[in-house]
Amino acid sequence: MKLGKVIGVVWATKKVPQIHGCRLYVVQPILENGQDSGQPLVVADPKNIAAPGDRIVFVTNTDAAQAFDTGFAPVNASVVELVDDIA
């Protein structure tokens, strides 16, 4: 699991059926102290829980595909939780 901050929205008029209704965001990976870490990436939000400006937890690779209710979607990264606070 990785931390990130939603910095933008991706609009796609055509999507594969597995991700219809799923929001896509541009996410900046961050460290625990909030400092940027690496390049921004597109992350799917299968539960539609995030919004621009939110800090999130996201997963990549096989875990990202399994974050969908169907158990599979052709994505490389998915939102799994919102971050309230980092202590």
Model description:
The protein is mainly beta. The protein has a single domain (2-82), classed as Beta Barrel (OB fold (Dihydrolipoamide Acetyltransferase, E2P)). It contains one helix and five strands, in the order ββββαβ. The chain has a five-stranded antiparallel sheet. The longest helix is centred in the C-terminal third of the chain and has 5 residues, at 62-66. It is globular and about 40 Å long. The model has no long low-confidence stretch (mean pLDDT 94).
Order of strands, widest sheet: 3-2-1-4-5
Radius of gyration: 12 Å
Profile the largest sheet. Answer: 5 strands, antiparallel
How many strands appear in the DSSP assignment?
5
Overall tally of structural domains: 1
Multimerization status: single chain
As a percent range, the share of strand residues is 35-45%
Walk me through the topology.
Elements: E1 2-10, E2 23-30, E3 41-45, E4 55-60, H1 62-66, E5 77-82
Q: Which terms would index this structure?
A:
mainly beta, single chain, five-stranded antiparallel beta sheet, 87 residues, OB fold (Dihydrolipoamide Acetyltransferase, E2P), globular
Structure summary:
With 87 residues, the chain is mainly beta. It is built from one helix and five strands. Helix content is 6%, strand content 39%.
